């Protein structure tokens, strides 16, 4: 085993070792050492593997991928890890959001040792999901990621968080049983669990076995899409994301929704049978983008509004992703679509994490989460000891990014997605959804308007200090939004280069600031304003209130699951 | 052969109907366990059909049972136990907060509290 292979395992094993160390020290050592251990753990478990993995970048660019087995067993027995461009991108995505969230959680809660250890375990499972090329290993890693997510959601102080976590656990774990069933089906007809062997086994199938293979793939794909929260599989998301602590919400929306989606790429590559399923999924994504943004517009709770937005933006990502698979990843259109999809996933992670953290901080300061009644959030923040209104400024950066206005990252990623989708039905859906996004963010931004009534705050004896760590997290995320926007061309080239190196040479960025695009951006902004005007009018309020009451219960989660399974099975038939 | 498969299918149905239909959250957790057990049994049953001798290599042992499904199920059982423990811990927390184990009552009381 050479040094490259050792480096390859570092993002999986170093975080696990660091997490074990943190938990050990927490049990046996005094508080001062514990804190040092946490900082050290983050350094060893998150920063160090990231730097190590980046050294593999030239090899990935030249060879395409690196392959190795755990423990040096023969390939037919051992667990095979395959590190390619997508694995590197997923590890980068996880680290880019986890670090600011962790910094934020230090002062705003839940910043204890368990939390740091959980984050590390989660990052390890994400790296493993990105690299594994074995179906059963994928199951184990997805479950591990799921368990950390359930626990992280339940760290919320209110019992609501426990309920959200319980619902998510029940639906997701039941779905994973079906994943196991699908794995069994593929194992039975091909006699293997590794992607490579399954792929060659599926090529020679005939007759009844082909139906078994298709149905097994279906059973694998649907549970993973449940984690991605495409409608109608998204009912669990709103509670889970809005009731979790703010740092966790940022992580859930930013990272955990996207990792399973891009891990699915390898499952889709197994057989041409699977690619036929990609088209209906992309339509589901486009519909999700539109419906979820309407629901977002109707919410009165600030964090629920953001949660519905996550579903809507996932719709963008999924529709580009599905069309990429439909066209074939190795084709020019396919690889550009996939790059667009990942680019939007990445910038969505940045601005949504920023929005969750700033809105969380502001609503906590004012102790009110209702967007209709909360005004003067800035005064409330000042009362908490904030001198410069950085929270509001960073929120604005996030809001402008998600509304796709230049020069922030959202403009570039959304334009790239819609540009690559031009001419399809998805394009129309997504364009309407963009106007909805603008409208709902005008609605959300009103919480920073000065209040008409002077706000009464309880007198505080000592002067409060605003935590520096929160500001640091905001600024990190806001600057990265801006940086990705300003260096959009380099970012797109970096992503395309990792997905398919040949296409990166033919990429041309001249379409961003064409007349058409600028007109479209201004029309979207105007349409957003008009939509907002309609939303605050009397009939509009009536409709929105009606929509807000449409909330699913526990049983509806399973109804959504059955619907998705049935619909996709019907299509495959 | 057919009867065993039907029995496993029925077991899975029992588990699934408990998850969806039962009102008590502890029963829901049991349902999840039963559903898990059904899949574990399916793996073991179908795995045992390949070959006939115990998978311990020795003299004269040629047609061993495929050991892979059994090995996989060990991992799956461990994961199932973890998830069950977590779900029961959440159930305890919900009971402490709302004083009920019925899912409808819990969600109603949590909503009014909010």
Describe the model:
- The complex is a heterodimer of chains A (573) and B (114).
- Chain A has 573 residues and is an all-alpha fold.
- Chain A has a domain of 242 residues.
- Chain A is built from 26 helices and 2 strands.
- In chain A, helix 9 packs antiparallel against helix 12, helix 16 packs antiparallel against helix 18 and helix 16 packs antiparallel against helix 21.
- The longest helix of chain A has 35 residues.
- The model of chain A has no long low-confidence stretch (mean pLDDT 85).
- Chain B has 114 residues and is mostly helical.
- Chain B has a single domain, classed as Orthogonal Bundle (Helix Hairpins).
- In chain B, helix 1 runs antiparallel to helix 2 and helix 2 runs antiparallel to helix 3.
- The longest helix of chain B has 31 residues.
- The chains are: A mainly alpha (573), B mainly alpha (114).
- The interface between A and B is medium-sized, with 30 and 36 residues.
- Low-confidence segments of chain A: none
Helical residue percent band of chain A: over 70%
> Assembly state here?
heterodimer
Number of domains of chain B: 1
Low-confidence spans of chain B: pLDDT under 50, at least 5 residues? none
Structural class of chain A: mainly alpha
Which secondary-structure class do the elements of chain B indicate?
mainly alpha
By DSSP, the count of extended strands of chain B is 0
Approximately how much beta-strand content do the residues of chain B carry? Answer: under 5%
Shape category of chain A: globular
For the largest interface in this structure, which chains are involved and how many residues does each contribute?
A: A-B, 30 and 36 residues
Distance between the termini of chain A: 46 Å
Report the order of strands and helices of chain A.
HHHEEHHHHHHHHHHHHHHHHHHHHHHH
- The count of β-strands of chain A is 2
Largest sheet of chain A: 2 strands, antiparallel
CA-atom Rg of chain B in angstroms? 20 Å
Fraction of residues in H or I helices of chain B: over 70%
């Amino acid at each position: 085993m050479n040094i490259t292979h050792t480096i390859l395992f570092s993002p999986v094993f170093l975080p696990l070792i660091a997490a074990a160390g943190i938990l050990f020290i927490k049990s046996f050592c005094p508080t001062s050492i514990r804190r040092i251990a946490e900082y050290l753990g983050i350094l060893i478990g998150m920063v160090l593997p990231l730097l190590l993995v980046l050294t593999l970048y030239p090899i990935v660019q030249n060879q395409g991928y690196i392959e190795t087995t755990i423990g040096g067993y023969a390939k037919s027995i051992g667990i095979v890890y395959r590190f390619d461009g997508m694995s590197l991108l997923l590890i980068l995505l996880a680290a880019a959001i986890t670090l600011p969230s962790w910094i934020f959680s230090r002062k705003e809660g839940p910043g204890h040792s368990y939390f740091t250890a959980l984050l590390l375990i989660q990052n390890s499972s994400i790296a493993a999901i990105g690299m594994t090329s074995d179906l059963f290993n994928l199951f184990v890693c997805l479950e591990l990621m799921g368990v950390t997510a359930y626990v992280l959601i339940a760290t919320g102080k209110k019992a609501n968080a426990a309920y959200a976590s319980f619902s998510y656990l029940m639906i997701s774990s039941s779905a994973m049983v079906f994943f196991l069933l699908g794995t069994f089906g593929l194992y039975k007809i091909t006699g293997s669990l590794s992607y490579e062997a399954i792929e060659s086994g599926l090529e020679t199938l005939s007759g009844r076995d082909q139906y078994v293979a298709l149905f097994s793939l279906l059973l694998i794909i649907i549970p993973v899409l449940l984690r991605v929260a495409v409608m109608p599989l998204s009912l669990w998301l709103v509670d889970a994301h809005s009731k979790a602590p703010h740092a966790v919400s940022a992580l859930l929306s930013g990272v955990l929704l996207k990792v399973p989606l891009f891990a699915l790429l390898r499952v889709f590559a197994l057989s041409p049978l699977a690619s036929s399923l990609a088209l209906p999924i992309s339509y589901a994504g486009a519909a999700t983008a539109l419906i979820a943004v309407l629901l977002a517009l109707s919410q009165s709770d600030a964090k629920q509004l953001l949660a519905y937005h996550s579903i809507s933006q996932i719709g963008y990502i999924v529709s580009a992703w599905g069309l990429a698979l439909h066209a074939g990843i190795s084709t020019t259109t396919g690889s550009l679509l996939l790059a667009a999809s990942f680019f939007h996933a990445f910038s969505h992670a940045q601005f949504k994490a920023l929005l969750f953290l700033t809105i969380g901080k502001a609503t906590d300061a004012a102790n009110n989460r209702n967007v209709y009644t909360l005004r003067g959030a800035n005064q409330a923040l000042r009362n908490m000891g904030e001198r410069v209104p950085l929270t509001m400024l960073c929120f604005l950066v996030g809001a402008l990014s998600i509304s796709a206005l230049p020069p922030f990252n959202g403009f570039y990623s959304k334009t790239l997605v819609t540009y690559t989708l031009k001419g399809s039905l998805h394009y129309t859906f997504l364009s309407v959804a963009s106007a909805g996004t603008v409208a709902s963010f005008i609605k959300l931004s009103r919480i920073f308007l000065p209040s008409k009534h002077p706000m009464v705050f309880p007198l505080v004896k000592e002067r409060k200090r605003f935590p520096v760590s929160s500001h640091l997290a905001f600024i990190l995320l806001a600057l990265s939004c801006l940086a990705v926007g300003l260096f959009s061309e380099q970012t797109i080239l970096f992503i395309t280069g990792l997905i398919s190196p040949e296409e990166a040479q033919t990429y041309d960025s001249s379409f961003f600031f064409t007349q058409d695009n600028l007109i479209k951006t201004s029309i979207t902004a105007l349409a957003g304003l008009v939509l907002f005007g309609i939303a605050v009018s009397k009939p509009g309020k009536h409709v929105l209130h009606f929509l807000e009451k449409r909330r699913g219960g526990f049983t509806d989660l399973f109804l959504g699951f059955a619907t998705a399974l049935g619909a996709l099975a019907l299509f495959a038939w | 052969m057919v009867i065993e498969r039907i029995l496993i299918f029925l077991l899975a149905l029992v588990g699934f109907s408990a998850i969806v239909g039962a009102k008590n959250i502890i029963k829901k957790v049991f349902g999840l366990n039963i559903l898990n057990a059904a899949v574990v049994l399916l793996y073991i049953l179908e795995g045992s059909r390949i070959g006939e001798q115990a998978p311990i290599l020795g003299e004269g042992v040629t047609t061993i049972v495929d050991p892979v499904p059994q090995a996989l199920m060990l991992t799956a059982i461990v994961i199932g136990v973890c998830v069950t423990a977590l779900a029961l811990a959440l159930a305890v927390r919900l009971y402490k907060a709302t004083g009920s184990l019925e899912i409808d009552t819990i969600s109603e009381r949590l909503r009014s509290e909010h």
